[in-house]
Amino acid sequence: MGIREVARRAGVSVATVSRTVNGVRSVSPAIAAKVWSAVHAVGYVPNTQARALVSGRSRILGLIVSDITNPFYPELIQGFEQFAVQAGYDVLLGATNYDPAIMATTVRRMIERKVEGVAVMTSEIEPSLMEQLTGRRIPLVFVDIGPPGLRIGNIQVNYEAGVRQAVQHLYRLGHRRLAFIGGPSDLKSAQLRRDAFVRCTSAPEWMAARPLLLAGDHKLEGGFEAVQRLLSAPVRPTAVFCSNDLTAMGVLRGLDVEGLRAPRDLSVVGFDDIHMAEYTIPPLTTVRLPRLDLARQAFQSLMAGLEETSAPGSGLTPIETSLIVRGSTARVEPAAS
Amino acid sequence: MGIREVARRAGVSVATVSRTVNGVRSVSPAIAAKVWSAVHAVGYVPNTQARALVSGRSRILGLIVSDITNPFYPELIQGFEQFAVQAGYDVLLGATNYDPAIMATTVRRMIERKVEGVAVMTSEIEPSLMEQLTGRRIPLVFVDIGPPGLRIGNIQVNYEAGVRQAVQHLYRLGHRRLAFIGGPSDLKSAQLRRDAFVRCTSAPEWMAARPLLLAGDHKLEGGFEAVQRLLSAPVRPTAVFCSNDLTAMGVLRGLDVEGLRAPRDLSVVGFDDIHMAEYTIPPLTTVRLPRLDLARQAFQSLMAGLEETSAPGSGLTPIETSLIVRGSTARVEPAAS
DNA sequence: GTGAAAGCGCTAACAG
DNA sequence: CTGTTAGCGCTTTCAC
């Protein structure tokens, strides 16, 4: 079943089989044909382990996400895996579930498997863990976080563009009192989203009523529970901006429980534009973060890091966000303001 | 950085390092201590490739799913991965996206990586592909499908229990005219769900009005589009049973577009009980399929297949489904019947 | 209890 | 263009 068996059947050396299978040009067509037929006869499949051992290349890429249960990630994973497989790589997935301990074992697993690069699409990674990777000259790529450096890619997301559009959209609809439901406090991406929101609502026209900032967790639960706090505010906001779509969906549900509904009683804006955002009731107005671009940049940055020739951070243009208007936002009712 | 370096530093042979790291008893505590300190000093991490090559064990399990975008699967993947990692395995994920061609390349990738077992949580697998796996004595486990055999596990799901409860639930609420929205026609699990539904609605009390069977795709889109066909039926059903929760969510949205809503205008029942089912508007009455049980059985079956001693099919008790009543079903309005 | 040595299956010089 | 050979890093007999 191994390469020797194929060589024996084809009446050639193992080197020739290896060359044929790997598409090295210098094999005569006649011999190549014999080798291929032997390959098919035996059902030969090269042993990746052996290959990796001798070549020093595992052809595995690590992908670390925080919450595989958040629909944003599967959509991202799918894209990343697609690029990877196209280039002959397999993906080793790690879901940390926001837990630093799991993050540590995940990094360990990746090192053991000799991954050739790691895309970290999650919360802050401990410096010591990062050094384990960089110390082994493994290219890394982060979103929003991480120090730049050789073999370290940093994907920038222009949150502000989308957030500004959303805030203006709400302003034009007559909203003057906003709320914001954030994500996990230690998640840099969540901080940046909130910061962008705070900045966009620092313009003079918003000075009359400062926005209400509420805590969330980027899960359905967090949005659901935030509704209580939102409704009991001294001055009830007329619109809420959520740090991700899952949170917004939780809000929608929370409103329903109170006998309220968007956008009549409260305008709701999400963030991410997961596929499902089009199917909520009402469909969600949200800021789109293009997942496929994210996946592509992460993959390309890793590949660049492997080349060694170019700095992987370079050539990365920030990912642009943009507002998608659907049905969860509306002109504020005079009665409600 | 390799085992030799550790051996040199600890002043022992590589064999002793290997034994220490692998916890073989026959290493004296004194020597073991020296080895471990050398291991930490160097930051030694065993090379899985080399290990796999010599031991013939890759410690990788394959997991094939059809649609990673369907929230049911991430929840399943998470469970499966957890069991695997606990036992020292990594998971190679394959998402076929319902495409037989992708399935073929996925199986190939798994063979190349020398996976020790494959869990197939998706549509029918071509016999030739399956033989590639079984011919290499790789344990397999299927849900709903696949011929039983040595090293082949078959997880059975008792769909009928949950479906019967759901149908009875609807009957008691006064519904007499039902509809069913199915899944992909070539997906065995979808067929079984539909069959269970048909069987449960073959009792005498349902003879007056045969259910309306509609096609779907287990996606939001399918449910959404089915609403049109459902509403234009000569006799409009008062309740619809969906082959999965995503379909049901699509229906909810489809109704909303028509200015209708569940359960007032149509009772809706889903299938799977994904986490999100609790957060739809209204929350979804659905048949729960315990994901963690599924993940556990899949994993255990694979482990049993590796033992060789026991037939992996044995010891598997069918997975039970049960009705979870939430807000998307209600007593049929006299006016609507 | 510990070490020496033989490979696991493959690729990549280096000869021919 | 093809064959011979030396390892990749590790585990595992087999001696000691």
Automatic annotation (TrEMBL), chains A, B:
Pfam families noted in UniProt: LacI, Peripla_BP_3
Q: Which InterPro entries match?
A: HTH_LacI (IPR000843), LacI/GalR-like_sensor (IPR046335), Lambda_DNA-bd_dom_sf (IPR010982), Peripla_BP_I (IPR028082)
Give start and end of each HTH lacI-type domain: 1-55
Q: What SUPFAM superfamilies does the record point to?
A: lambda repressor-like DNA-binding domains, Periplasmic binding protein-like I
Give UniProt keywords alphabetically.
Answer: DNA-binding, Repressor, Transcription, Transcription regulation
Q: Which domain of life is it from?
A: Bacteria
Q: Name one GO molecular function term.
A: transcription cis-regulatory region binding
Q: Could you tell me what this protein is called?
A: LacI family DNA-binding transcriptional regulator
User: What species does this protein belong to?
Assistant: Paludibaculum fermentans
